[in-house]
Amino acid sequence: MEMKFFKYKGTVFPSPSSSVEDLDFLENEFKVRDDDVFNVTYPKSGTTWMLEILSLIKTNGDPTWSKSVLNWHRIPWIESKGSAKKAQEVKDNPRFFNSHLPRHLFIKSLSDSKAKVIYTVRDPRDVIVSHFYFGKISVFFNEFESIDELIKEFLWSEELPYGSWFDHVKEWIQLVGKENFMLNSYEDMQKDLRGTVIKICKFLGKELDDTALDSVVKHSSFKTMQENNMSNFTQVPDTLMDQKRCKFIRNGICGDWKNHFTVAQAEYFDKIYNERMLGCSVKFPWEEK
Ligand code: A3P
Q1: What is the pTM for the complete model shown?
Q2: Superfamily of domain 5-287
Q3: Does ligand 1 have an atom closer than 6 angstroms to the CB of 231?
Q4: Mutation probe of ligand 1 site: the residue of 39, 47, 130, 254 with most atoms within 8 A of C-beta
Q5: Do the Cβ atoms of 10 and 89 come closer than 8 Å?
Q6: What is d(CA 289, CA 286) in angstroms, rounded to the nearest whole number?
Q7: What confidence tens digit (pLDDT) does each residue in 183-220 have?
Q8: Which of 14, 39, 72, 155 lies at 20 to 30 Å from 80 by C-alpha?
Q9: pLDDT by residue (tens digit) across 149-177?
């Protein structure tokens, strides 16, 4: 029987979606092009939402593509099985990709290129809650018996898929200030989706008129995405993701952790979070009191 996870250079990856061979090819042989765009996140931080926004920006707000083509075919996860080799053959420019890779395992040729990276972060407490529910429905993550168990794993372990949230975020934000890197947050998207879409367009050098912008916002809303079978992962076989128990596009709010963490868990999280983020130069939206 296939193992549920494997390790590549010490980091855990889900076996159904990736392999050592794919990751090695991607890291060392994949050729980044200057006009490539990467949607990078630690899992459960808003990857699928950004994917939808980028799809809609690409089509100038026309939702036809988003409503007719599965999201992972529109914008593939570059580390998924066979994805990088296939992408190498793609003639169309620009190419768009998603990735959950930590920066130290990312495509080496990125550093010599002008390719753009949009890195989206989310309140790690909400990442934990979202992860907790995703673990109940998918083979890609483990199921945890309690939030408490997952909080400890999240704070202390290197064994969650794609590694530690702290290392992931701290590595990627070292690129803040580079002109081909945009730091974005799930919280900003919630607060001002239209404003975020405008920022993304500016970053990509893409001009959309007001009607197109309105359409991007409308078609990337929580409700539209939850109902869009090309975006809500309902076309994934139940054996990989069983949404009878819980939807992938589940709740989509900021601060859901308040409904799940006890006071003691929240205090413990804060303490360790502050220790582990000590010296971090970026101030995140969830740190504002
Ligand atoms: P919740 O589980 O908190 O609801 P990822 O795509 O990185 O796996 O992140 C999944 C999270 O993004 C889920 O969070 C999901 O509901 C949320 N999400 C997806 N589309 C969204 C949208 N249009 N608006 C708000 N949240 C969205």
Answers
A1: 0.98
A2: P-loop containing nucleotide triphosphate hydrolases (3.40.50.300)
A3: no
A4: 130
A5: no
A6: 8
A7: 999 999 999 999 999 999 999 999 999 999 999 999 99
A8: 155
A9: 999 999 999 999 999 999 999 999 999 99
